[in-house]
Write a structure and sequence with these properties.
Layout: H1 3-9, E1 34-40, E2 43-48, E3 55-58, E4 68-72, H2 75-85, H3 88-93, H4 99-111, H5 115-128, H6 136-144, H7 156-162
Antiparallel strand pairs: 1-2, 2-3, 3-4
Helix pairs in contact: 2-5
Length: 166
Amino acid sequence: MTSYQKFLSLNIDSSLISLEKTEQADFFCYPLNAKTIGFEGCIMYCFIDGYEETVFASNPESCADINVYPLARNFDDFIGLILACGSANPIEQIIWMDKQKFEQHLQEEKEIQTAEQKEVLSILKQELHIAAMECPFEYVKALQNDFDYSKIQFSDDYYDVLGIER
């Protein structure tokens, strides 16, 4: 059983770590070849066919010049990042932040972390046997640098909304 399969079998409220299990409206930037992990508002966390186990964020309201970007090489690393950052939110923000902004955001997130969130993180660590990632900012930035996005398939709406030629 993979870590992702174990994660799915856990009796936790994954919305507490920004991975809500819900059906969302289909936004223009959600890849056609995506398999959803969870949502935080309109941000979809997913796997994308053609990229093996890489975990992505797809954000229609991105602060960066890109709406879909990698966050982790695999699900184990994604959980390690969540354990280090408290939720998927700070990880998703790295695309547009510098190290100082990230550290500030991370500190703010940890200050408002609830007992329920801490319990979910504890369960993840215990049940999945994954350690917190040592340097989350550097890990994500290294993955995102020069990433090949060519296998991501988008709908016609994506190209129309962004004014990109197909």
